[in-house]
Design goal:
The chain is α/β, with parallel strands linked by helices. The chain is built from 8 helices and 5 strands. It has a 5-stranded parallel sheet with strand order 2-1-3-4-5, sandwiched between helices. The longest helix is centred in the last third of the chain and has 46 residues.
Length: 209
């Protein structure tokens, strides 16, 4: 099975259509049709087309798509706020197609979480490379986020262990090596992480004063 068929995509549109669509809404319908057909012809699984309103976060949470494709014109900045809110707690790649000639907000869109921004409308003949690049960029960013989070966690754990060692050294007259050995033995005996033993010691010391 191809990667494209594995991806579950949701298309997000900027407005609800009225019963009697005007010229702008009719153009939006045509854009949406072109985008949907381009995605389907490229082999992607389009599971839903949703309006970009305040109900979007709940709908995204229910559908659980792999990627969000936003189709917007000048309303791109407004609809993007709803999409960002919908992916705030569970990040997903976002691709934004827009005909808006004002590209001054592209940098802000990327900072908000957009993985790919196409300002020239829907490129039907090359939509697959756009989607593939967006997914690759998103996965790389998520890898960097995890690595950064791990590095911060390790730094915090090291600070906790160092503080616990300091307590043992000052209160029980142990050397740094002896203090570390005692913490490590306690962690092994209890079957928990060294940092957790250290935090418990610190909490107990704070409680006893």
């Amino acid at each position: 099975m191809s990667i494209a068929k594995d991806l579950r995509l949701v298309i997000v549109l900027p407005v609800h259509l009225s019963f009697e669509p005007d010229d702008d809404e009719a153009a939006e319908v045509e854009r949406s049709r072109i985008l949907r057909m381009a995605l389907l012809e490229a082999g992607y699984n389009v599971v839903a087309t949703l309006p970009g309103d305040h109900f979007l976060p709940d709908r995204i949470a229910q559908i659980q798509p792999d990627m969000i494709v936003v189709d917007a014109e000048s309303q791109g900045r407004d609809i993007l706020e709803h999409v960002v809110m919908a992916t705030r707690d569970e990040r997903r790649p976002i691709v934004l197609f827009s005909d808006d000639e004002d590209t001054s907000h592209v940098r802000r869109a990327i900072a908000a979480g957009v993985s790919a921004y196409v300002a020239s409308g829907v490129p039907s003949e090359r939509i697959k490379p756009v989607i593939d690049v967006a997914m690759a960029r998103f996965e790389q960013e998520e890898k960097l986020r995890r690595e950064l989070a791990d590095a911060k966690s390790q730094l915090e754990e090291r600070k906790v262990v160092d503080r616990a060692k300091g307590l043992l050294m000052s209160r029980q007259g142990l050397s740094e090596q002896e203090a570390y050995a005692r913490l490590r033995k306690a962690a092994m005996d209890k079957g928990i992480k060294l940092a957790e033993v250290a935090q418990r010691l610190i909490d107990a010391a704070d409680l006893l004063g």
